Amino acid sequence: MTSQLVWERDGGDWPNRETSRFVETRRLRWHVQLTGSGPVLLLVHGTGAATHSWRDMLPPLAEHFTVIAPDLPGHGFTERPPPHRLSLPAMADALAELLDVLELSPELAVGHSAGAAILVRMCLDGRIAPAALVSLSGALLPLPGLQGHLFSPVARLLALTSLTPRLVAWSARDPAMVDRLLAGTGSRLDARGFDLYARLARDRGQIAGALGMMANWELRDLEAELAHLETPLVLVAADRDRMISPGHARRIRRLLPQAEVVRMPDLGHLAHEERPADAVAIVLDVARAKGILSAERPAAKAAAGVRAGSRARSAS
Q1: Is the dihedral of CA 304, 25, 73, 137 positive or negative?
Q2: Cα angle vertex 153, ends 150, 158, to 5°?
Q3: Does pTM top 0.85 for this prediction?
Q4: Cα-Cα-Cα-Cα dihedral of 179, 271, 138, 79, to 10°?
């Protein structure tokens, strides 16, 4: 089962298209953006997004790193797996399988929202061992209160209703509906960002993938194990985030006191898209503090790793 988005039709003006390729793993056909040279940096977007989320961060980061940015299963141009493969452990397993095929191991990992939870799960399971993990508005703990108890069952019900993705996609033809969705993040995007999210919101495959992911999402196990995370964790919290409040980072620090917190004032849940230069600066600061950029590693070695995935082909 594939996403409704078709690369040949919809990928013509996709951000950083020249870095895109498709990679076959045992279970999925992935859309991946690979570029740059140097230490390997893995970027993982959140629920309902795609590689476009990194559109303004990827080029400057590629000046320092070999950057891997995939569309998650059921998102963007990556194939949608069966619903049970959209759980947190299954997503982490699928992403680890992709890295195995590419023969690349990240030295630094950056995840936004649910993408940060996937990276934490991979670290806890020993699937990756980066020198640091940067969580951008990371959704690492269950939502508090009634909302947290109802969210997954409601999403599960919606995911089981095949009509729902059609209705959401149809509604998204109205720019006001997309505007309300983005306003709910607390972020203010430019016209390009608005257009890209509107395109995804009109896609039935994207909506089905996001709903399936939410329906199968369970963070209680991650919460129980978070105190055992050995990977240095940097929590980036946006002051105007209406989805993951800054208080979320404080809750995480109670479980993991060694975690660092960095604030991004006057920004919402999509802070890294509102001010990508600031987010890039945070990533570079972490890389320098952890000695990643100063490590003696020839860029050619990383570039060779990118070419090593024998089943990867450039998109055209």
Answers
A1: negative
A2: 115
A3: yes
A4: 60
- Residues 113-158 have pLDDT tens digits of 999 999 999 999 999 999 999 999 999 998 764 344 434 444 444 4
207 neighbors 171 (Cβ within 8 angstroms) = no
Distance, in Å, from the CA atom of 51 to the CA atom of 283, rounded to the nearest integer, reads: 17
- pLDDT tens column, 225-275: 999 999 999 999 999 999 899 999 999 999 999 999 999 999 999 999 999
Identify whether the C-beta of residue 84 lies closer than 8 Å to the C-beta of residue 21. no
Query: What's the DSSP call for residue 83?
Result: G
**Per-residue CA distances from 198 to 21, 61, 146, 315 (Å):** 23, 26, 29, 23
Q: Which residue has the tokens 């329906």?
A: 215
Residue count (the chain) = 316
What domains, with CATH codes, occur in the chain?
Answer: 7-142+218-314 (3.40.50.1820)
Q: Exposed, middle or buried, 190 (CB in 10 Å: 0-12/13-18/19+)?
A: exposed
